[in-house]
Amino acid sequence: MSVATTVRRALGDGPMLARMSDVAAGLPAGAVAGAFLGGTLTGPLYTGVLAFAAVSLLFLALEELLREAHRRDGRPWVTGTLFLGLLVFLLVEQLIR
To answer: Over the stretch 54-64, which tens digit does the pLDDT of each residue have?
Structure first.
């Protein structure tokens, strides 16, 4: 649903089925490419790719949370609390190891 809305905003109204089939065809191709690259990477390069993926997912999740928070309540302390909670979570994880 989110992908369909994003595609519609970016490309305008038109044959949505054709656009969604392009996205659906791209997912398996990306999975095959990711499996190939993941199998060939080792050591620090593999760790770097995983770290980049984790940070990308965190960014996307935080971006959605911040949009929702500002839509309902635009106070700056909401943003600060969100980032402080993330920082505490990361610090606790490091202390447990």
So the answer is: 888 888 887 78
- Side-chain half-sphere of 77: how many Cα atoms within 13 Å? 0
b/e map 8-32, b = 16+ CB within 10 Å? eeeeeeeeeeebeeeeeeeeeeeee
What span, in angstroms and rounded, lies between the C-alpha atoms of 93 and 18? 44
At residue 73, φ and ψ (nearest 5 deg) are -150, 110
8 Å CB contact between 34 and 26 = no
Residue 93 · residue 86 · CB < 8 Å: no
**Pair of tokens at residue 42:** 């080792």
At CA 74, angle to CA 71 and CA 79, rounded to 5?
100
